[in-house]
Amino acid sequence: MLNKDELIIAGKTFTSRLITGTGKYKTLNEMVQCLLESESEMVTVAIRRLNLLNISKNDSILTAINWKRFWLLPNTAGAKTTDEAIRLAFLGRELSKRIGQKENNFVKLEVISDPKYLFPDPIGTLRAAEFLVKKGFIVLPYTNTDPMLAKHLEDIGCSTIMPLGSPIGSGQGIQNINNIQIIIENSSIPVIIDAGLSSPSEAAFAMELGAEAVLINTAIAKATNSIGMAKAMKLGVKAGRQAYLAGKMVPHKFAQSSSPVKGSDFLNTMQK
Description:
There is one protein chain. The chain is an alpha/beta fold. The N and C termini lie far apart (58 Å). The protein has helices spanning 28-38, 61-64, 82-98, 122-134, 147-155, 177-186, 200-208, 218-221, 226-246, 264-271; strands at residues 7-9, 12-14, 18-21, 42-46, 71-75, 106-109, 138-143, 162-163, 192-194, 213-216.
């Protein structure tokens, strides 16, 4: 029986709604174990970090990960301008082909010129996204929580919207809840919460809001027990998604008795 609740991005189907990263881990082995325990299917890798001239080295992320098991999501982290992001995107697409994913045109687009808070550059992101979409890329843009920017990115052909929960690596959770809800409400493409989540409860909350997926790296990599946190994030995402599909109760201003009033006459009779 087919799973009716799959994540679909530009026709590509995923059963996991947790996307994981590869940075900040203590060792390559720990990173690989966390990816496996998380049961994620899509893994993002910063192209700028890689030695593309020699991807056969034993200490390379590219050789440590089983790319028959995971879908590569190259990202343009480190790009400060539109042009830099575009160059990294093309390198990432070439890399996908070299590891055997011939039909992989995915790119996580990041254009960040702000060195302190690492907020995405909205104008640079929009320009790069428009160019890359025309070149056949499946563009997953990392953005701030601006509903109008999200709509513009969707209109030019991006395949997802990836608003930040809070600044990258901050662990501050989801800050601009209202704007994220507006983005989700107005989007006909998947909304993926990216950056700032620190705990399984925050991942669950993101899914309860109606996000299609979350991307988590630092919260797992920097946990005291990274493998344990990878498992916990997996469960948090699943629980949040199930809660969203189930539909939570409508809040009430006053208390509502959970015990039925019916039957009180019987008790009164017994007491006489």
